[in-house]
Amino acid sequence: MELLEDIRLVAGDTNFMRLMGLSQSPVLCFVIDTTGSMRNEIDEAKRVSFEIIDRKRGTGQEPSGYILVPFNDPDFGPIVMTSNADIFKGKINSLTADGGGDTPEMALSGLQLALTAAPPFSEIFLFTDAPAKDAHLKNTIIALIESTKSQVTFMLTGFAAGRRRRRTSQGVAPRVMGRSAVQLYQDLAEASGGQAIQVTKSELSLATSVIVDSSASAVVTVFQAARNPGRPDHFTFTVDGSLNNVTAYITGDSPLTFSLTSSTGVSQTSSQSSGPLAFVTTAGNLRRLSLNTDNETGLWQLSVSSSNPYLVKVTGQSSVDFIYNLVEEHEGAHGDFSVKEGRPLSGGNTSFLITVTGSETVKVTEVTLFDSSGPTEVKGSLQSLGSSDFLVTFSGIPAGEFVLILKGEASSSTSRSTSSSFQRQASTQIKTSSISVTAEANNTNIEPGTTISIPFSVAATTDGVITDSATETFTVRVSNDRSYTSTSPSSVTTVAGSGGKANGTVTLTAPSSAASGTDVTLTIEAENAAATDINYVVLRFSVSAKVTDVNRPVCQVVNTSTCASTSLLCASSQWEFIANFTDGINGTGIESVTIRQGNGTLNMSTVVEAGGENITLVTYTASCCSPIVELTAVDSVGNVGTCVGQARVLTTPPPTTMTPVTTTAVQTTSTGGYTLNISTILWLSVVFSVLLK
């Protein structure tokens, strides 16, 4: 408790809540190509972000944080992370479209920075009109998407191949994005549960409504499925009483038609932009259906007809949702679990720890892994762990790409006595693998200028069990998001009869200039010889300089002034609290002093004593109506000291004044030959209160 309280004092309440996962709204995260042809896209990113900030500032839906990553070629970053909307506005407003010429850009390197910086379950928006120069990072990006469970939506404005290239108003020709380049972005979007939206530059403002939709609080995924290659299909999804603002998205090239049917049998086709069930807007390959559910709970159907690849996604706002982690159970009396990195093993037993929100109104009935391309559905064994936690175990998961679907009964948002079936779907795909990759670092801290070693093991498996009957070579790829120097073997080979595991070592070196507190995400991937299977492990480290200052700042009270003991006079008088904060001769120095309790003003100055010790002189002034102050001092390495002051109570009132009866007063009270004015009565009340105490 003391450790958490110190962290809270250093970070502040807002950041502490974010650290503990208590933020009620998502972050706003943009990854933006800043080359010469991207002026329109940068302007649109500014417009939509400013709209979200200005509309939601001061409300419960204000983004909990802001992340911005610019990229071009050969540069990407630096990343901007802040919880201050005005700082984010200033940074995005300072972006300019400049340079370019050679089409590919460092899109995936910029995306890698965003994925490792954003909280889990975030939605990231990437703007570009060019292919990715760093396409070799595709598997690393997918590993980070699966690890963080974040969604990535691509706003693609590159002209399709074959179109005439016209110069923009800035004299820079828009880039051509070929089919393979678009396919890379579509693969990443599908893996994450996001979308790859292709529009012209003039259509972009219509497509960014997706960003506004996702920035709302409590957005849940009801249903999502992709068809590649495209084919006509019918998709059903459940609308429950807790859902609001239900929206369906269909992304896919034309020709594409669809029809929507409600739970009561009412239908609307794609030829109707405004019908009985939805208002439809179209921009490029995106169709956005804003549904008018009118309390029509039950099973709805969306039918799509196209020979081109397409994606269907249905979202809404609801308190009913779930988060999940792949876990492994530890033996022992406590029944502990630890998060398991990487993909579940094909044919083996796999467990997920699921936490359901809105648990007071929810009854979970079923959790399944669903592969819509099969279609294959695997039902899990559901075990309640109390409260809103469930352990779901799947036996013998086949090879494939799955999504996690949770079903149950939810009470209506307007009536707890009325319940309806509900369905929620995890956005991120869950892929199985026959390769086991494990790694364990002895220390997750790296000192600047030092190197750490991370041993790892790779093995082939059958039905979730490591095999020891064949020799197999695996390609090894290692990447980190800070571009720190790293070494690793290019491949490892298992030897039959030696336990089935191939071992290797990765080294990671933090430069001497690395700032303490910098986080580093390391991804180790292993791929089979046929390049048909891959697994990974993601490790996170912190750069931490050696700390020699372990002492808290010390407070010495210099002076505390007085206030009258009656609250009737507090507004007209002030008190002052003066204190010295020191961090010792060998300390790192006081970095900040803040008011934790109190409504006054704080002034600080630093003086140096003869012995060389810095003293931070603090003067706090407040109304006597706020007679208590608590100050928090933090030194440069995060040690926390506190100082509490309270105004002294004036216990000796000035002498009272008595006047003869003949003296005139505006307000008087007669007391047997003397008249007391009102101020005298107030001072007498002070005396009586002191005597009573």
TrEMBL record:
Protein keywords: Glycoprotein, Secreted, Signal
Keyword Glycoprotein on entry: yes
Subcellular location: Secreted
UniProt superkingdom: Eukaryota
SUPFAM superfamilies in the cross-refs: vWA-like (SSF53300)
Residues covered by the Hemicentin-1-like von Willebrand factor A domain: 28-201
Hemicentin/VWA7 galactose-binding domain span: 220-319
Keyword Hydrolase carried by entry: no
The VWA7 Ig-like domain, residue ranges: 441-544
Pfam family for this entry, one: GBD_Hemicentin
Stored InterPro entries: GBD_Hemicentin/VWA7, HMCN1-like_VWA, Ig_VWA7, VWA7, vWFA_dom_sf
Gene Ontology CC: extracellular region
PANTHER family the UniProt entry points to: NG37, VON WILLEBRAND FACTOR A DOMAIN-CONTAINING 10, TANDEM DUPLICATE 1-RELATED
Name this protein carries in UniProt: VWFA domain-containing protein
